[in-house]
Design goal:
Multidrug-efflux Transporter Regulator, Chain: A, Domain 2, 362 residues, alpha+beta, 4 domains, single chain, eight-stranded antiparallel β-barrel
Length: 362
């Protein structure tokens, strides 16, 4: 159905979503965030005209750059916003992608040279080719390979202890401060609300945990300076650029302030409602980061029937911010209640999400 107003063709929410490749839920989210203001018919139905469609395309383009909804709102509202960190992360991601492509090309060229010399390719070589050239970084196959790699036994290697001072400092894992501490010739890592854990060298710039199946890789720039780290865990790779001490302490203070004031993230309730409604229906996981979406898909066979047994979503009540920096909500359904907790990445997507019954302790 189309509506005409001011000589401009208007679209219903469903028609608009289909035209620009979004979901109706996404349109509702952007409206709740104040990013778009659709018109209304006499029956109070939402309609989208040329200006609203143009604005939605701007939002999509900015989200692809990695901007959060809050930053997008500031930009579109003419407010100044700090884009340097987002551009730094985008730069790092593009460089890593380029490195993967160059590595894949080198594998192909080496195998072609071997074939030209009359040699046969081994099964291991073909598996390496399949793994490293035909898999997207967030595909199920790539994640499975990384889980295998991260779970293998590690062997500690002695490196120059003087290097430890280079790793020490703050790293920004989304809105959390990842702290690396050099103490008594040993290196420790710490995340908010979690115990400090020692990390052990596997090689220069490569460390591993003994307490958990996870590793850290420190990245250097062309001048040899440490500029960030990568956390390898659960089959995923999480980038954390290095930040100045004052920025790291500001992240710590901001989290402590949110916990103390029991202040939820902006639009958190609306976002959680959307993602729960998605999981209760036919989920498309578009509100989740790729790693979390893959995990949700893997668990869908067992979780799907449970979600459907809960019945319709009724109400969400904010409880607190956990010591780890996750927002906790008490969520009631037609057939029960659960605690849901989540954390968002810098782009406003769910990077962590879990639920538990009221009988389970924190």
């Amino acid at each position: 159905m189309k509506f005409t107003a001011n000589k401009e063709t208007s679209l219903t929410a469903a028609q608009c979503a289909k035209r620009i490749g979004l979901t109706v839920r996404a349109l509702r989210l952007y409206e709740q965030a104040g990013l778009v203001r659709p018109g209304r018919t006499g029956k109070n139905w939402r309609v989208y005209g040329t200006s609203e469609v143009a604005r939605l395309n701007e939002i999509i383009a900015l989200k692809r750059l990695g901007l959060s909804l809050q930053h997008i709102a500031q930009l579109l509202g003419g407010q100044a916003t700090d884009l340097d960190r987002m551009l730094s992360m985008q730069n790092l991601a593009l460089k890593e992608k380029l490195q993967r492509i160059q590595y894949s090309l080198s594998i192909v060229e080496n195998l072609r040279t071997k074939i030209a010399a009359g040699d046969l390719l081994s099964v291991d070589e073909l598996l390496t080719l399949a793994r490293d050239t035909n898999m997207d970084n967030t595909s199920s196959e790539a994640i499975a390979w990384r889980r295998y790699e991260q779970a293998r036994p590690r062997k500690e290697k002695k490196i120059d202890p003087a290097l430890y001072a280079e790793y020490e400092g703050y790293y920004a894992l989304d809105q959390l401060a990842y702290i690396i501490t050099n103490r008594d010739g040993r290196l420790f890592s710490h995340l908010p609300g979690q115990p400090e854990l020692e990390i052990f060298p596997e090689d220069v710039d490569h460390f591993f945990y003994k307490a958990v199946q996870a590793q850290l890789t420190f990245n250097r720039n062309v001048d040899g300076e440490i500029v960030g780290l990568v956390l390898h865990q659960h089959g995923y790779e999480h980038d954390a650029p290095r930040v100045e001490d004052d920025r790291g302490m500001a992240l710590e203070d901001a989290l402590a302030d949110r916990i103390r004031q029991k202040r939820p993230v902006e639009n958190g309730q609306a976002l959680l409602r959307l993602v729960i409604e998605d999981l209760l229906g036919e989920p498309d996981y578009k509100l989740l980061t790729p790693p979390l979406a893959n995990l949700a898909w893997e668990q869908s066979e067992s979780a799907g029937p449970f979600f459907k047994s809960l019945g319709a979503l009724k109400d969400l009540a904010f409880e607190k911010v956990t010591k780890e920096g996750w927002d906790l909500y008490d969520v009631s359904f037609e057939n029960g209640r659960l605690y849901w907790s989540f954390v968002l990445d810098d782009a406003g997507s769910f990077s962590g999400l879990y639920y538990r019954s009221h009988h389970e302790t924190d």
